Amino acid sequence: MKNDKNARILLVDDEPHILQFLEMGLVEEGYRIATAPDGMTAVNLAGEFQPHVVVLDVMIPGMDGFETCRLLKKKGADMAVIMLTARDEVEDRVKGLKLGADDYLVKPFSFDELLARIEARLRNQFPSLFGEVALGPFRLDDRRREIVFMDRVLELSPTEYDLLKYLVINHGIVLSKSKILDAVWGYDFGGEENIVEVYVRSLREKLNDKEHRLIRTLRGAGYRVDLP
């Protein structure tokens, strides 16, 4: 889906062919793009370019991606940061989240998945770019914290709202329980992962999703929302 909202994306990677590939694809999607080969250039450029989303490689020369993320978030708290890492290690994920990262992708990744993550971050953190977001049978209004399903306003608790919004905005993406906990409950949540199952069960009841066609369970992987 083409983007016509002038959303700005800053790409940070020291590999020119990756920057070129991502820039070409995102420009084709209608985004305004700036690129940086290292962290210091990215931080300086962010002040002028004011990106909505930063796609940031962890392994960049000089100042690494973690320190770059910290400085970018200090410069603009609303700026969404998606970190790219070659290692899917829990320590890297937690470290990035503690420094303000909003999402992460493990290399190698598909362009379509990165595009989906960018769109999700924009809808989640910059709803004013879109107003009310319509996704399949859902309409999300973040200003009113209201979700309409099949023309029916859902009666949701604050946590149910946050969880359903996260699942719907990331439709088509498999989300593990740990990733959901980080996004909805926070990386410092000290409870059990099973709380996700409890809330998913409640959402399925409110959506009349008895056959789990909307919120699918992928055994050993997590959950995925499939929109009709």
Automatic annotation (TrEMBL):
InterPro entries found in the cross-reference section: CheY-like_superfamily, OmpR/PhoB-type_DNA-bd, Sig_transdc_resp-reg_receiver, WalR-like, WH-like_DNA-bd_sf
Residue span, Response regulatory domain: 8-122
Coiled coil region boundaries: none
Record-annotated OmpR/PhoB-type domain positions: 130-227
4-aspartylphosphate carried by residues: 57
GO CC terms: cytosol; protein-DNA complex
Top-rank taxon: Bacteria
Keyword Transcription among UniProt keywords: yes
Alphabetically ordered keywords of this record: DNA-binding, Phosphoprotein, Transcription, Transcription regulation, Two-component regulatory system
GO biological process: regulation of DNA-templated transcription
DNA-binding region: 130-227
Protein name: Transcriptional regulator
